[in-house]
Amino acid sequence: MKTLPGSAASALLLLAAINPLSAQNADPGTSNAGNGGTAATTATAIEVTESPTVDGRLDEAVWARAAAMTGFTQRVPFDGQPASERTEVRVIFDDDALYVGVWAFDSRADAITYGERIRDYEVNQSDAVVFVLDTWNDDQNGFVFGTTPTGIEYDGQVANEGRGGGRFQGGGFNTRQRFQSGSGGGFNKNWDGSWTVATTVDDEGWYAEFRIPFTTLRYGNDARRWGFNVSRRVRRLNEESFWTPVPREF
Question: Which of 59, 101, 165, 199 is the most exposed place for a label (fewest CB within 10 A)?
């Protein structure tokens, strides 16, 4: 059985954030099917004994054990409307790491914007997926990870819900800048964690497979409940959507 500090569980409850940095108190099973509502969403990361190979293919049977997070909702350009392209996200873990798989289906895979292959490249300039882990489930602090179809590593730390200080070092952070903020303020994009990601592309879209070692993260006493949200950007449509809706005012 997987044991995280302060817990002993074979499943990790992911509590979706209404804004990227604020996890909501939610009952397991409550969901928002991407209709722009405000009901908090939950998902469960499942423990596995056979670790997937991080190759971006996502074709191993172990991924099927976790339920898919779907029903993404646009933030821009059409706030509250269903995302134009289908996205599926699954999360699993083993004794050493958390794995996040993203299926970014695209009806125009020939028009995917790859972006430059540079670590911490500004992901708003290409197709991208980015997620936040509020490992303390305190609505204040988090780790941000992302990638583009080229397989870059994009990461950072958020402190005190963007106001600086907190458990991570940094200055002020404006939540209106969302995941694409620079290194100033409470979003420290200069932080480079030890983790891996791989991507693949085919005629149905692109796919990303992340491995985040637990040693890269810090978390509180109740390590069974983490805040979580995922963003996807489709560059050709200038569209950004979220697993749990993020209204434009955030």
Answer: 59
Q: What is the mean pLDDT of residues 75-92?
A: 97
Return the percentage of the chain with pLDDT > 90, whole number.
54
pLDDT tens column, 2-53: 345 434 356 778 776 544 433 333 333 333 433 344 456 789 999 999 999 9
Q: Which residues contact 238 (CB under 8 A, 6 or more apart)?
A: 76, 77
What string of DSSP letters covers 68-100? PB---EEEESSTTSBPSS-EEEEEEE-SSEEEE
Retrieve residue 15's tokens. 């509590």
Residue ranges covered by each domain of the chain: 11-158+195-242
pTM of this structure: 0.80
Backbone φ and ψ for 138, nearest 5 degrees, come out as -115, 10
**Taking all residues of the chain, what is their mean pLDDT, rounded to a whole number?**
79
Phi, psi (degrees; rounded to nearest 5) at 160:
55, 45
Tell me the backbone φ, ψ of residue 114, rounded to 5 degrees.
-80, -40
Helix (H) or strand (E) holding 165: none
Class in CATH terms, 11-158+195-242: mainly beta
Mean pLDDT of 64-83: 96
Which sign, positive or negative, has the C-alpha torsion 120, 123, 124, 126? positive
237: tokens are: 């449509």
* Residue type at 57 in one-letter notation: R
**Cα 148 to chain center, whole Å?**
13
Q: Which of 155, 156, 154, 147 is nearest to 208 (CA)?
A: 147
